[in-house]
Amino acid sequence: MPLLSDRHPELDAEQAYLDFAYACLEESRERAARMRDGYAPSAGGTTQARHERESIMEGVVHRLSQLNLGDRSLVFGRIDPTGTGERFYIGRLGVWDREQDPVVVDWRAPVAEPFYRATGRASLGIERRRHFATRGRTLLGIDDELFGELASPGADAEVRGQGALISAIEASRTGRLGDIVATIQGEQDEVIRAPMPGVLLVQGGPGTGKTVVALHRAAYLLYTHRFPLEGQGVLVLGPNRLFLAYIEQVLPSLGEAGVDIAVLADLLRPRVRVDMLDAEDAAFVKGDLRMTKVLARAVSDRQRALRHDFQIGFGVQRLRLSVEQSRKIITEARRRSRGHNSGRKIVEEGVFEALAASARRAVDARTVRERIRYELPIRELLEWMWPVLTPAHLLHDLYGSNALLRSANRGAFTDEEILRLGRSRSGHASEVIWRFGDVPLLDEVRALLGFRPGKRNEDAVRTYGHICIDEAQDLSPMELRMISRRSLNGSMTVVGDIAQATGAWANEGWDSVLAHLPSKREVRHRELSIGYRIPGPAMTLANAVLPYAAPGLRPPRPVRDDGDRPRVVEVDVPVGLGLVDVVRSELGAVVEGNVAVIVPDSLVADVHDLFERHDLPFGGANRHGLDQQITIVPVRLVKGLEVDAAVVVEPGRIIEEESQGVRSLYVALTRATRRVAVVHSAPLPEMLREHAW
Question: What is the mean pLDDT of the chain?
């Protein structure tokens, strides 16, 4: 396999070309800035003229954001088509010279595909692929691969540009996910450039790059299908806010700042506060598809006929509404309304018509409505028969009453299961801090209720032309149902790893996930089989757990067979000086890199106290990411993250305390790019004992 040369004969010439490319980029930035200043929106002119200025301004601002690379590399390498004498330099974005000739080709352009896909068997029309290793604007080395008659050894290897790839892999982690655009591999590029329509399912083991591939796919689709996706929108969904903080820099680094990155709670309308985890048994009930029937009946239970005949004074006479009339009004509203809240108008019309008909002297319903609609008895009557509701109001009332829960249940769950949802009432629904398991239920209720009168903008749900779902193996049927509502056309990229399914609704296979997603087209399946992040020795340790976590699942093949051997350290107590010594040792080994101390939830507070007593600076896993060199991470939050070194504390307790304990341990053991240490005082799980070196 070709490696980076110490001093390639064309290094100076290529450095000169990079300098020229950066000069052209700077000129483009200056031109864009001048256009921005010249087309600043103003109040003058026609509506069309103002709209044109605003559109130009928006495009210029977007272009300026693309041109601001910071310290990211502009050019990744070049390809030389066979027999043409041409050269195409591939980079982060397209750059042109003053004559509008291409200087750098955007990595997403069709002409760039051979840079990522060419092999010895399928050269895709090129005779040379050259990878650059750069730091800022400085070219450090060159990695050449030759094809056809010039073919070099390793031209048909699975891994492209290994020197640049290994250099990127071995760079210290920053606590944020970086892009891989300079080192995308063939199987990754196949996923990124796959056709947009329908559902694309990507199974990828730890370290295969599935998350970053999904993000690059979002950027590629926006580039390739700018119309209609720029108007329809692209959504990337992650499992928690720590994960969002971890990935938030990738798309802006690729010049795409217009993608919505969110957790499910961000999609709720109207907005509520969500910041609590459910007990696992309650989360399981909330994720079950049977909740759709429970919630539909809960809404129906709020559409009620009167218990007693109603009458109200109207001048010198009394107007009346019988129980039977109220029952007919409810039946008619259910028949005619498309959502609960829209039925309120039908109920009001029926009530005032019935009251007007009961008058001894002729009076029309409009007059009755205008005169008594705001009187307290009428307001109470309408609120009883057919209240206007928000999802929060309905769910708050439902959870706060065992009687309402039993009435809505009607055999869908056992009494013990449905009563898990009960919670004490707050003073008002607006005061409730909802649990994450409530999010899809609130959304289901919103779909049943429809828009409130006069609140269409506040209640409207955003839909998207393409949705990327990460860590999809943990999503419940109700969560998947919520996501499907946001899809305009069924176009989705779904990525995950069944071996890392650890939530309350841990799916045993992809069929149970796909069953709840749009099925307008046949699902396309892809598998990422090569592990880029995890060195061979660490992968060997994790593979001892994999057969217990997901029997029959094929482990990824590591790119790096070498690497530091995992350490398995027995200590006297789970939280003591022995753990401090191991963490300090790992920190010294990775120098400027970061260390994640991965612990079962029951030990988080104790480890915090331990590190404080021994003056060991550390941070916590939070929505701002891993922003310290040492971070204490509860095992339930570690999924999807990558660090230089991982210290996994008490694997036996992780297995015992987590509902998917073996899978949680597998996740913990596969986070590090360089070093893994296991610290235990309790006996090791049997699957790890032969690795206790």
Answer: 91
